[in-house]
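Inputs:
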Amino acid sequence: MERNEILEKVQDVFREELELDDLVLADETTADDVEEWDSLSHVQLVVALEKAFGIKFTSREILSWDNIGDLINCIGKKL
Amino acid sequence: MVVNSLAFLWFFLVVLVVYYLCQPKKLVQNIFLLICSYWFYAQVDIKMTGLLAILTLLFWLIGHGIGKAIDQKQERRASLLTTLSVIVGIGALFYFKYLNFFIGSFIAAANAIGLHLSWTAAHIVVPIGLSFFTFKLMSYTLDIYHGKIERERNIFDFANFIAFFPTILSGPIDRPKPFFKQLKQSRLFNPNNLMTGFRRVLWGMFMKMCIADRLDLYISAVWNNFEHHSATSILFASLLYPFQMYADFSGYSEMAIGVALMLGFKVAENFKRPFFTINIAQYWSRWHMSLTSWLTDYVFMPLNIKLRDWGTNGTIAAIMLNMTFIGMWHGADWTFFLFGIYHGLWYIPLMVSGQFFKKTKIKVNEYGWPTMPFVIKMIVNYLVVTFGLMLFHSNNISEFWAVLCRIPEAWNDGLFFDMPTLVNAAICSVALIYVDIQEEWFTKKKPYLPRWAERWRWELTIAVEIVAILLFGIFDSNQFIYFQF
């Protein structure tokens, strides 16, 4: 899967989980940029992403992401 | 040496002058700062200064090891070293704070089932600020392991982060990343930082000396002799207690943040008008924020991630554990344990109803004031917090129970009203509530000031604050409530 495709799919998951239809994600987007993305919704997002991509993240991977770019790199390595 | 004392004032004036004479050489500034921090800590707790230095060195070495293991892709080694650092941090906390409590509780339980064990509590003195600096130490190694920061190669910078004197006694609990970033730049003399910092120190002094210490006179008079007081007095004192705690700890935090800012450091915020919230989750996101965000990142998040396949039940389990940690962090007693459980239980209806996951914002009317249903919810939330703090204030469970039993017994007696104390406290509290309301709902609307006053706004505010502290402040002061933790 191309990096752009991953980003698009991640964006769809975020839009659905956070109920934000206009949300646009970029590599440098962080939780500080999206009010609804907090420590709680983060775990819901992780579960939804694992389901959407059919993968499983380790705790250390999840805790090491600083922005969307890190998340996409992590997914890319698993596909 | 408390922050609002004359001794601290002299110490800080000398520090400030020499510190800015060292600019722009950041290395000299940092070494000077480290000497001052250790000197300050030695004034407060000379016996434990060695422990602070040893723990700092140990964590720096472990952090170095973790960083190296990550560079060499030795995942297992990095993980083992990180676990070791957590064991050392928790071990230090456990030994100094909880050992007597756990052994005592175990012996009591054994005796209750008929075993006859006896035991004398070991004399262990808890180092001042231990709960705060061990959390900083652990966040350093955990952040390296999770790839949030690089290991800090300069031990003096690391020691500066741990021992930073404005925050070592009672926080705010700062994080390594933003602090190291600031240490790497020289702090140049900036009148704006100096003025803003000074104002925050004064505001903190006002909260502490004019409100918290004044309210303490009344609350302690009632609580310490509750068996002679009426139900109305006990309930009234209990209702005032959350506000006293807020004025005390937020006041302290303002002073610490202000002092740090005068030295050119922006440290973590600790309070954001916690009583303008409509449920317990919102309250904890605004009360002692540097502690709650630490626990969210290092306890709640990893637990919630581990238990994520359990859905809401996993989140409930993570919250309950997290809140128990928050309770027990405050001290070794069953009252603190129950305090944590009590707050954790309030999260369950929020989670089951889904409110926890939604961000309900307080609605305002056309004049900018919160609407009546939200005001009622805020009042109810304040009552929920009050009950929890009654537990927190009690020396042990039996005292808490005795206070509760006293309420129906003494229902018909009148209110003990210490007029001068309460009137003084009320005048100052109105000022605090006014400022909080302005900052919460009316930030865009500047209060009208005549032109001359607008021009001298800063100077006038500072003058008014100084006069208010001199007029209403209590100078034979109490310790800060949070120093004991």
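The CA atoms of residues 10 and 49 of chain A lie 7 Å apart. Flag for discussion at group meeting.
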